[in-house]
Amino acid sequence: MSEPLLFELSSHGRTGFSLSCLDVPEKNIDTIIPAQFQRTAAADLPELSEMDVMRHFVHLSSLNHHVDKGFYPLGSCTMKYNPKINETLSRTESFAATHPFQEEAEVPGALQLIGELAEYLAEITGMDDVTMQPAAGAHGEMTGIKIMRAYHEANGNPRHKIIMPDSAHGTNPASATISGYQTVQIRSTPEGLVDIKDLKEHLDEDVAGFMLTNPNTLGLFESQILEIAELVHGVGALLYMDGANLNALMGLVRPGDIGFDIMHFNLHKTFSTPHGGGGPGSGPVGVKAHLSKYLPSPVVVNKDGQYRLDDDRPDSIGKISGFYGNFGVMIRAYIYIRMLGAKGLKRVSTTAILNANYLMRILEKTFLLPHKQHAMHEFVLSGDWQLEKGVKTLDIAKRLLDYGIHAPTVYFPLIVHEAMMIEPTETESKETLDYFAETMIAIAKEVDENPEILHEAPVNTPVSRLDEGLAARNLNVKYVADAQ
Q1: Backbone angles phi, psi at 213, to 5 degrees
Q2: What is the tens place of the pLDDT at every residue in 180-205?
Q3: Can you give the pTM of this predicted structure?
Q4: Each residue of 419-432: pLDDT tens digit?
Q5: The CATH number, out of the four listed (3.40.190.290, 3.40.50.10190, 3.30.930.10, 3.90.1150.10), of the domain defined by the range 349-472
């Protein structure tokens, strides 16, 4: 074992210090750091205690809303509590210090985790193979569409259209368009489901696939899914599932068993990774057997009990990520699945459904509920009753912040006027749900008695209401070094 390094610490000005290793003579410092990069005066560093530093950052964390601070019912985003054991174990040095350029033989544990996680996801969804490469949900959509294109071109029948319902997540038409397809919109019925008649009128042999979220963005299960699958497959097209709402299906329904050929997962939503503020994410893609050969290369395979990377895939769409995906998110998802097991995952979905329907039945008396049938994990209210009194859905969303609650998704899906999409998730207690319901009812009462407070909301937050349109048009992200 080498001798421990010894350091000498000498005073260097009022606030600075010179730290040098005794094994490196002072006279050789120029060979280590060129003279033009060396300080000629002490750095003017603040003198702060650990307590002051901690209080500073804790204060900063309190300025933003997050799921550890309060309720976060952001619909379709599944902003649920993330077990801290996931965070601790994902930082295990043997995982966190792994370098993407290491040889396969040096990272068998990492490859095993990736391979086993892919197998778990395939089992949960009824898919035959899963790639872990895509770095986000929308990236997974693009990957699925590239697989779709490769499948049709291999069959000598390149196609040009992808269809989707008018309730689709915005990333669906964006992913199809950026992949070179024409997008076609199918209307929803008054009940909020796919209009089968309209679907039939748009299905032809130029359709590559139908992208469908199930449950859909209204929180409703597409009860005609078997007929939809038969119609789509009848013209040689593929059925794609946006997996954003998988939190309602685990242990109850497997997409691969009801006709879906391709789907993407949102590991950061369904399988527990903090993702507020736009990241981090992970969007694996699952496929049925007839599409396996098109998966991005390399694929982690289990050969003779050893997990390894398989690059010998001549029909692959190629690599779609610089390395093999967001490994830190995979670790969290793996731990989450292993801790819960099959029964636990089913309980996640059933509890999420129970929580959503509990809130929906309370709030339908105070807010307009356009679709009254049993919901899955989320539901959509309309603020039209309040709009008649001069208060917009945005005003309600801003007022919720004053009560310590993050707003739900507002103005989406577009097919509901003044929409509020509410997803309580499975991790919230009945006490929290009751507080949210009481708060929404209290805000509705304010609409009647003191609407001006909603126009000014939020009034208790560090920053009051911003002109979001102006901020978007005149984006200013300049860093001011001397803010004080």
Answers
A1: -95, 130
A2: 999 999 999 999 999 999 999 999 99
A3: 0.87
A4: 999 999 999 999 99
A5: 3.90.1150.10
